[in-house]
Amino acid sequence: MRFFFRDYCKYWVEWFTYAEGNEYFCEVDEEYILDRFNLTNLQNEVPNYYVEALQMITDNPSDKPMSEEVREQVERSAKHLYGLIHARYIITAPGLKKMLDKFKRGDYGRCPRVYCHQNTLMPVGITDVPGQKPVKLYCCRCEDIYNPKSRRHNMIDGAYFGTSFPHMLLQVYPTLKPAPSEQRYVPRIFGFKIHSIAELHRWQDEQREKQKKRLGITE
To answer: Were both Cys, which of 77, 133, 156, 204 would link to 126 (CB 3.0–4.6 Å)?
Structure first.
């Protein structure tokens, strides 16, 4: 494999989650992957080398020899399949617990909004359809989403986390949700709120028009 540390990892899932750029993923339990019920309909999402990809993920490769080109295609399918399995796993009780640990460690970074005071972020997908949108980061204080800072994280498919995960996590662990931020930035010019200045200008215009009418000035 191209990643030199692959030789130091005993299992494929371990290698995948420790690979650079895959820090957002947690390790899916082998028992979950081996339960075919959990993989229902995923074969339709991975039409090429599904069986071989699953064998690679579960460290049970086929004895059948394959070319380097085919092996690369199998590996791509394995990564995609693992991402789809991951999206299902992280909304189960064990998956939520693993993602909770990553959230508490701040693995996904902090909210860039000043008035969120470094609130911890969590991953979310804009859509559950693979190949549509990259993963975003959700802040449960301002309830908005942000792009990951790292370019490599911006390449992760948002469907590998799904649209429900952060909200499911907050439902199961409600104490994680902080009080909403009531602070808002107010634009000002020379200390005056911009909307106040606009109101002042409108009032001045109205007074000017009234003065013209009283003086009989026409334009």
So the answer is: 133
Q: Contact, 10 vs 121, CB < 8 A?
A: no
Is pLDDT of 190 > 90?
Answer: no
Which is nearest to 85 in space by CA: 53, 61, 60, 62? 53
Phi, psi of 136 (to 5 degrees): -120, 170
**What are 199's two structure tokens?**
């109101």
Backbone angles phi, psi at 100, to 5 degrees: -60, -45
pLDDT digits (tens, 9 = 90+) for 31-84: 999 999 999 999 999 989 999 999 999 988 777 788 888 889 999 999 999 999
Say how far apart CA 83 and CA 161 lie, in whole Å: 8
Question: Which burial class, exposed, middle or buried, applies to 211 when counting CB atoms under 10 A from its CB (0-12, 13-18, 19+)?
Answer: exposed
Residue type, 30: E
